[in-house]
Specification:
2 copies of one chain form a homodimer. Chain A is an alpha/beta fold. Helix content of chain A is about 50%, strand content about 15%. Chain A has an 8-stranded mixed beta sheet, sandwiched between helices. In chain A, helix 7 crosses helix 10 (about 235-255). The interface between A and B is large, with 93 and 93 residues.
Chain lengths: ~280, ~280
């Protein structure tokens, strides 16, 4: 089986390197709008060869789309136009808009929408690592609209990536990711901006930055080119969560402002319930 | 040299276990208002024996205060009353209020105010780990008011803990920690509350929780008993930072709400500058 990785960055590169190490595929063909990325991906041994999108479609059995979600939205219809037997895997972080755009496409059945809940704050082919996906969740979205053989092909690859699986409907997926992924990024962006604002006047501040700070702010290193389209796609859900998040911060602010430390203690204690969810 | 650890939790226990492994002290005496904690600390071998605060003061050369900052504020004057030659180390996370409270104490010189910028979201003696402090920053505060020999004694221990050191004035310290530690906790608390609010109606949400979410929310597991007093002590600085943080979130909210993705992209890109600070 030949596979094409369209977008040889963190996700695409990690799919490639993991499948390569497992010898799960015969050939990995890389496609990227950046020549620099393609050269690096070849150098790092993530891909076996590079070519154009058109050529890659013709020569592959499975085509992974691991590019920003606006690029998926733009390219997906024409990719579905060109395929015959191939399977296309949309690995984007938002689903509703993308799946609506191809809902009536005659080749819709060849598309499997899957969102690997894995990543780091780094991007590009150098960020690719084996085992990025190990033990993480692959969320399949609206699989009832995928052909059975197309799904089975992708699921066999998911197994090679050693992932767990879940199934969701597109809208449900986008709401959930707004809560457990997208809002975390916004929080980190805002925290970084807050601290950077202060740093202008207080250079020494970062001598103190400990591991707590690092952990809450690390997502602020994430790529704007990748994330802006995600927020654009998932705008309505994210705005809803963001409003709730600001409300919670204002509750904390009010307790502190009014020196109501009993209320403050209760809020922290309530937030501790997150222990039920995180190991 | 005998040392007393007043408060055998995460920080006190980690000081104890590290010094014990290095054989840097002769005896470690534990004091805690919780008998359960004392028993666990003995069981875990963090301390050699347990006793009362009074007895511990009499039998120790160095007394570490690793209890919540409200308890430090309350106990410190009477501890300074009782000491003769001993050194007292205040390891609290806020400094201005505590140091003001003992500014004119005749034994002020025996006190060394030091804040180890290290910790985890866990608490209690079971949370104590060796190497918690390794490579982290020990911030000495207002050392010009400490006797030279008292400072040298503490600094030798800091070296055993393999920490780097910085020196700050009390107000500067409290402002800086509001930015790089306290606000991170508030962000995590609010994020946990946001998501828990949603979870009431959507149980499946956490199937999706990936490592990004975990990292931004993990501080929400922190102890309310330890943190409420810190926020009480550092209220004014934290309120200032919190206001700025909410403003930054509202800027992001506005860009998204107005579908101004150019502004949104710019905000993320600006937040990326945090890379300069975090490795």
């Amino acid at each position: 089986m030949n596979i094409a990785i369209v977008g040889v960055g963190l996700i695409g590169g990690s799919v490639a390197i993991t499948l390569k190490e497992k010898k799960a595929v015969s050939k990995i063909i890389g496609v990227d709008k950046s020549d620099t990325n393609l050269k690096k991906a070849l150098q790092l041994g993530l891909i076996d060869e590079e070519t154009t999108l058109e050529e890659a479609i013709n020569r592959s059995d499975v085509i992974f789309l691991t590019i920003p979600v606006d690029a998926i939205l733009q390219l997906l219809p024409s990719i579905l136009d060109r395929i015959t037997h191939q399977v296309v895997v949309d690995m984007g972080s938002t689903k509703e808009g993308i799946l609506q755009a191809v809902a009536n496409h005659p080749n819709r059945g060849r598309l499997v929408a899957a969102h690997p809940m894995a990543g780091t704050e780094y991007s590009g082919p150098e960020a690719a690592i084996p085992e990025l996906f190990k033990g993480k969740m692959m969320v399949y979205v609206d699989v009832m609209h995928s052909d059975e053989d197309a799904f089975d092909t992708v699921d066999a690859i998911t197994e090679q990536l050693e992932m767990r699986t879940a199934f969701m409907e597109a809208h449900e997926h986008d709401v959930h990711t707004a809560y457990v992924s997208h809002i975390s990024h916004i929080t980190s962006f805002a925290l970084a901006l807050t601290v950077l604002e202060k740093e202008k006047s207080q250079g020494r501040i970062f001598e103190l930055a400990g591991s707590g700070f690092e952990s809450t702010v690390r997502l602020a290193k994430s790529s704007p080119d990748m994330w802006t389209p995600i927020f654009k796609q998932n705008r309505d859900n994210v705005l809803e969560v963001l409003q709730e998040h600001i409300k919670q911060l204002q509750n904390i602010q009010q307790a502190l402002s009014e020196e109501d430390y009993e209320a403050f203690h209760k809020l922290i204690k309530k937030s501790n319930k997150i222990r039920r969810i995180l190991k």
